[in-house]
Design brief:
Layout (H helix, E strand, L loop, with lengths): L7 H13 L2 H8 L3 H15 L4 E4 L2 E4 L1 H25 L7 E8 H6 L1 H11 L3 E8 L1 H9 L5 E5 L10 E14 L20 E5 L4 H13 L4 E6 L2 H9 L5 E4 H9 L4 E3 L6 E9 L5 H14 L3
Parallel strand pairs: 3-4, 3-5, 7-8
Antiparallel strand pairs: 1-2, 5-11, 6-9, 6-10, 6-11
Length: 301
Amino acid sequence: MTVYDLSLRHIFAFNSVAETLNMSKSAHNLFITQSAVSQTIKDMENKFTVKLFIRQNKRLCLTREGEELYIYTKKIISLLEDAQLCLENFNSLKMGRVRVGASSTIGNYLLPETVKTFNEQYPGIDIDIFIGNTHEVIDKLRLSDIDVGLIEGLPQTDDTSVKITKFMEDELIFICSPQHRFAKRKVVNLKDLSGENFIIREQGSGTRQIIETEFAKRGINVNMPYKFNNSEAIKNAVSCNLGISVLSKLIVKKDLSTNMLSRINIKGLNIYRWFYLLRINTCNRAQNLFIRHILESAKNI
């Protein structure tokens, strides 16, 4: 069997079963019989001499071959949907959709205003937003679950199909509670950080990766008793004087102005990072317009 023998029937049937892991649900979703779904999967397995699904403890599971094929069928279906939107909206942008994945700082503190101004110009284009850590956003992009990824820090990926564009510089700020001993000091030396309780993001966070790299370069050893997967929790923990932390200036700007948090000025340590825009296949007008809007908006922040 060659790729030319694969029909859309094969692709949609396999993709549906891979998503639901249930033949009956897939048959219902595709408006065909369960036996037709089962036969289509068997046809693919027989012609390619692979096993795409197995049963474990009475549950349907993807094999390694099935997992790999699933990545491609999702991309094919996503491209077909893009093609449909392209044809439907070739001369107008009355309708459209852009699926955006963003790491937490960008998703919570930068995107809302950006989406608002974009929607004012293009009210017919829907923006679907997923917020996760950097690794999750890259995985979503690879699986074609999102069209555009916005992350903090240079992505660690060997996938050459991912196009990477810098779009905004961000400053990371050391913070503490107003009750912390550092709050009363104009400048803190690097060596004074050693032994401090440091509140950090979860593994996979772009912010965490940058901070751990900076600490390792300078030989700074801190205690990390608390790990949180969102910035609001970190701010609350710092304000309760559980430790110090580092967060984006975007996140703590308001808290610093209201004295809920204090900035720690560390001698010889200023940390900046870039926000990056990621894409693989950006071919419809709505996606291109949104990307252009992101790049233009970043210049004014």
